[in-house]
Amino acid sequence: WCILSLQLVELLLSSSVHLLYGLYIFGTAVAGDISQSLSDWFFKPNLAVVESRNSTGVDDLIPIVLVHGIFGFGKGRLGGLSYFAGAEKKDDRVLVPDLGSLTSIYDRARELFFYLKGGQVDYGEEHSQACGHSQLGRVYEQGHYPEWDEHHPIHFVGHSAGAQVVRLLHQMLADKANLAFEGYERTSPDWILSVTSLSGAFNGTTRTYLDGMQADDGKSLKPVSLLQLCRIGVILYDWLDIPWLKSYYNFGFDHFGMSWKRIGIGGLVGCLAGRGGDPFSSGDWILPDLTIQGSIELNAGIGTFPDTYYFSYATKRTRDVGGTAVPYGLLGVHPLLFVRVLQMSRWRHPPDVAPPYEGYRDEDWWDNDGALNTISMTHPRLPAEHPSHFVVKESECRPMQPGIWYYKILEGDHIMFIVNRERAGVQFDLIYDSIFDRCRKHAFRKKTTPPPTIPN
Length: 456
Known about the structure:
Blueprint: H1 2-42, H2 55-59, E1 64-67, E2 94-95, H3 105-117, E3 119-122, H4 125-131, E4 136-140, E5 154-159, H5 161-174, E6 192-198, H6 207-211, H7 226-240, H8 243-248, H9 260-272, H10 279-282, H11 286-290, H12 292-299, E7 309-316, E8 318-321, E9 324-327, H13 338-344, H14 374-377, E10 388-390, E11 405-411, H15 421-424, H16 426-441
Parallel strand pairs: 1-2, 1-5, 5-6, 6-7, 7-11, 10-11
Antiparallel strand pairs: 3-4, 8-9
Helix pairs in contact: 3-5, 7-9
């Protein structure tokens, strides 16, 4: 009873902190929009003044696409709030797609393709039937980079689960045996010039088990857990289907059709009871992809390509004290993540459950940033080790070689470099300046002339 009581207290604390932080972000976005509207009303901008810019130079630049992670959002959601804390303003040609915040890695990879090329999102007939949702989704009347092909490649930067989305999309482009995108027969891995990961979720995280995923299969949920509360909240949110609210924030499950207009009260009861019709019953959502087992299954079909440049920033908010990982100071960890940093640094795999892979050791997974384990963020390791090189100073890896995961370990928690720019301080500018500089000056195909650098 004592252990159960402590678990319930921890669940109450975690759910309250996550809910309050979510409301804070939402409130900040609404307040920002109201402030901007009032400012425009009282101080109408002079539309006659048009900022001049070198449009030719900008059009010649290869786009850099920033892909958000779990619970993230792209441009156009949450008002004027930026998931990447305004980093997109550092370069003249940056795209920030709005993908499903809780949809599976597979679904998000499909959405990202059509966001760039244009058209209606097609999740694939076989996948859609297996997961019980509509095959077709959102329509992009005009793609954000319709000329995208091997002669017009793209730089991708993915945060957290966004890095895996990019990797799976890369594999889809390379897969000739099973044509991924109907109507696009000539896709190839050369469509992607570079992949940069910022706290990327390559090999799963032990946090998924702390939040409520079952350690034995990595797919089902514990009856009482933070993720169960999340599941209920998401189903109710989509069922209520309030247009202005979903225009501000959308979990991305519209293709499941859980609106009250479609399924009524009976359908809601069925979804809440887990009888089907929702992503949680079919497993077609992002958390199973973030377990160690789910990541191993996903990675088994994704390669590292010889003509693509790779760089990874892994984050860590723990330090070694006598062979044990401990949180690195109270003030250095966001309140949203502090309890999880402590729990993940004490993680023990359940003794009655088989380890997720041969050679597994708990201590390898202790260093973490509150959401992901540091070992998971450096480069793809499971089920097979991909070519990698540890970097202390970035000048060491210049000139860069394609086909190798260069990785660097930073002191910071999982949300240090997103949403709130002030938290990271000067390190924010150093990281993103380095990312954009690498894309513009150090990652290009040698068989073609280097792309022009960013206009001054």
